[in-house]
Amino acid sequence: MVVHRTATRTLFDDGMYLMALITPIMTIPQLLTIWAQHQTGGVSQLTWAAYAAMSGIWLIYGLLQRQKPLVLSQACLFVVDFAIVLGISIFRS
């Protein structure tokens, strides 16, 4: 069976929307640990702030390049990463 390049690319492009949603979802357990249980031990605020900053840069790039899956994933990641940084600020003893 011969798969056309366009069909493969379309399938891959469509799969990227799924990945754009799965990636931020994988971060939710860390978010819940901080916000629901108020546990911030062992969580680096600097690291999560860097993640948020990088997501912001990737978001801008995605907007400029009109890459919808990149915009979707980075917008979601920015919100989640920023919420983690905020939670660390609030709940760190």
Features:
93 residues; elongated; Monooxygenase; mainly alpha; 0% strand
Number of helix segments?
4
Low-confidence stretches: none
Radius of gyration using CA atoms only: 17 Å
CATH architecture: Up-down Bundle
Give the number of DSSP strands.
0
Describe this protein's structure.
With 93 residues, this protein is mainly alpha-helical. It has a single domain, classed as Monooxygenase. 82% of the residues lie in helices and 0% in strands. The chain has helices at residues 5-25, 28-37, 45-65, 68-91. α1 packs parallel to α4. The chain is elongated.
Topology:
Elements: H1 5-25, H2 28-37, H3 45-65, H4 68-91
Brief write-up:
The chain has one domain (5-91): Monooxygenase, CATH 1.20.1280.
